[in-house]
Amino acid sequence: MTTTTIAPAAVLRTAWREIRLSWLFISADRWTTIFPATCFVVAAIVHARLPPAEAVATVALGALYFWLFVYEHTLANQLVGVEEDRINKPFRPLVTGQSTVRGARLRLIAVRVAFPVYGYFLGVLEWALLWQVLSLLQHEYGWGRHWLGRNLYAGIGVIAQLAAAWEIVTGITPDAWRWIVTLTITVTLLMSVQDLRDITGDRAIHRSTMPLVFGETRTRVFLCVGFAVGPAAIHHFLMAPAGPHWWIVATDVLLGGLSLLLSVRVVLLRGREHDQRSYRLVEQWYTLALAASIYTLR
Fold first, then answer.
1. Of 57, 129, 226, 269, which one has the greatest count of Cβ atoms within 10 A?
2. Would the keyword Membrane be found if you checked this record's keyword annotation (predicted)?
């Protein structure tokens, strides 16, 4: 077999390995990034009434952008959290040995170069750079070790994510901004639900999360109240402006019911497995809300 026939096969194997490895890094975060943000891309496409061929291409371009978006986050996050992950998330690639620390650092460098270049190509460079600044603050300058920094990172990250999603397609409208701002405030206030499942590991590395600073019970009560009043805010700012159509009402009821379920869960169902499930429900609520934007922002 000649070198010329071996080389393409080797390249394909290497490319497939990198795609698979990147998925292992990002798979746990797909419901807060790739899926919901791509839904918002689709909402912008429907709003802008793009022709079918252009719409399909734009969805693919957007999905790749958000793959890189979350890949940068997970590489940086897991590089600074290896010891914590041995306790809280032992399935991650740096713990299982599927990636070396050196390999992850090289990949992070490559993504930090490729991501803004790709963002420039899509016309959303400013949002790509905002996300990179947030990532540096979170992982290199201590935001991730303080509860307020962690919540601001998640909240402002929603702006970087959803503003880019819309502008990949068209200019941001006031209605799109209403969605972005509402979800930014919601995520900033309620994102500490993710810290309930990681109390043991966070305590071991002396990270200051809401449950450790204010107490687990107080944090659960705060989140309970937040999820309980959430349906009213979502109805007023996101659903009601779309009109009294049955499908809007149905979505309103579904999102509100899920939020009320979370309000009950965070208080009554405790323990790592229950808290992990609660966080997954928050991710699915976020994705469902942005899927609803496809027909509420037409």
1. 226
2. yes
